[in-house]
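Troubleshooting log. The previous structure file for this entry was overwritten by mistake, so regenerating from the original sequence record. Sequence copied from the archived sheet and checked twice against the printout by T.R.
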Amino acid sequence: MIWSLHPETFRYALALWLATVLALVTSFFLQIEPAQWAAVTVWTVFMQNPRMNYSKMLWWGLGTLIGAAMAVLLTVCFNQAPEVFLLFLSLWVAGCASIAPLVSSFRAYGAVLAGFTCAIISLATIDHPDHIFPLVISRVSCIFIGMASAVVTMSVLLPRHQHWRETLHHLEEHLRSALLQTAKALHPHPAAPSPFIWRQMLDRLSTVENTLRITTAETADSRARAPQASSLVATLFNLLARAQAVEAQLTRADAGMPADSLAALLRRTQALLETFAATLAAPSSQTWTSQLVDQLRSLKLEAAALRQSASKTETGAPLSDRFLADRLEEMLQDLEGAAQDWSGLFGPWHSKRPSALAVHRDYPSALVHGLRMFLTMSLAGAFWFLTEWPSAPQFILFVAVACSLLSLLPRAIDLGYPFIKRAAFCAIAAFVIAFWLLPKGEGFLFLALALGLFLLPAAYIWRQPRPLVTGVVSMLVFYGLTLPANSMNYDIAVFLNNAVALLAATGCSFFAFHAVPALSLKARRFWLLRAARRDLAGYARGRAGLSEQRWTSLMFDRLRLLHRTAGEPSLAASLPEAETELLVNLQLGLRWLSLRALLRADQFSPATAQVVADSLREFRKFLRRPESLAPFLQTACVRLKEAGGSTSNPSEPHAAALAELREMILLLQTAARFHAK
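Regenerated output below.
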């Protein structure tokens, strides 16, 4: 099968070309120059996912307006001092690029767009600052003309939006995977425990959550059901964390077999999970949901009874049973919520539970992006002052554009040679069209057909899954050299100067990623682990806002960032240890939250409450002296046993606290804790 001849691909390419034609003819009719920015906007809107238009345009329009306003401010304030102007321009573009690791999706693109829009407008008027306001109006007008042309063409030629249906399909796949993974965790093979598929599941769940935030503006279904879908995603994060805790407990080398009644309950829960996963295709039946919820509640009552029976003594095995019973009861509660959320996405509205998901703010990467951009812009500006090259402004602004867009990619350094090759091909195509084809005819129709000879094949190529940045920057090279306008200029000297400037800027942008590389796996591991310990220490000091959902989603997002850093096969050997450290901190945080909830319930004796409070406060030292935590918790465990040793049947909260403390100690001391694939 030849994918380039597929009817859907042809319709997509045709729609992109016609949208470009509409944007150019509108710009020419309104006499707005330079019109190529309207064509570039069309290409950008079409590139990644043409069904997510409104969310794109919201952030891109906002980024354009902010960048244009900053361009006016810099030009007005520093038009008589080009050195100071370039310094502040470099700081602004670097600051916008540093925002990219701190936000997600189109918000990141809007941030970098605010940076290089300022560079495009201000550098174009560096010699004529009195033209700044007309250029701002034309630049912003071209952006919105391109957006409007893309929306009109896609509404007529492309299929209707189906992203909500696709999101439901992805949610079904992820829910089924999470249920089956949890079922395996309840009965792992003792010799070879089944690994969690962390990288795939976490990346996919994070993608779904990001898609839900993006597409809420697209359809009524998205707006109405997105909160319930977010609740489902948050529940799946919690479910996976609890399943991981259970599997870690069952697969320890010194772990004994759970009590027969608990083992039987684990097997029954496993069977119910597998049944749940097999019946996801028909969730609209309320009878189905009611029966499943009733079974889950029945199992939850049995788990509560086992939890109480496991609290009678304080020996090792009953404490393990108590810990497993606690996690199983919480897991069944999450499963009940997941069943209701999933059914609520199709049938009548269910009461949704509040979801508090969090993402990691990657400040070290933001600093690297900002430093790289500032140094590159500063060196480009110094090169301009030293050489007085006429095309240096184009060189500087394209460095700003390319570096800003490459900041959106996790491993942009890997795209160096292929991307430079594509940029060179676009430059050659622009030369052929501008100096061989266009001089042979005249009129707008001829211009549109000539551009179509390149745009249609390019749309075929980039319609396949490709990085957004690759297509956008390549089109910037093409349109920056062809310069479609009402009155075409065929000056070959100007063309060659601009071509050298754009291609040199492309190469310098990738060189900047070698000169100031992204964080290595070792550095990423250090900063992510430090952030996790800092959070635990901060919450131990009384910082508000920590919940199970926030902590679980935050730690899983850190795991996702770790996986994205370790993209090279050579780093695979050192990845499991880094994953283990983060997973240990994930479980330590959950155990800390469980102890805090027990303490706030105010059911402890004064002596027990004091021991638990001291244990929670000890986490304040976790960032500076993490090695001191395990000995302190061991001492606290002894004190807790002494506090409840006067009775043969300690209270249930006392036994729960003892089980949580024991699990913390095991997490800190056991060598082989988790196995991630």
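The chain has a mean pLDDT of 81. Archived copy saved in two places this time.
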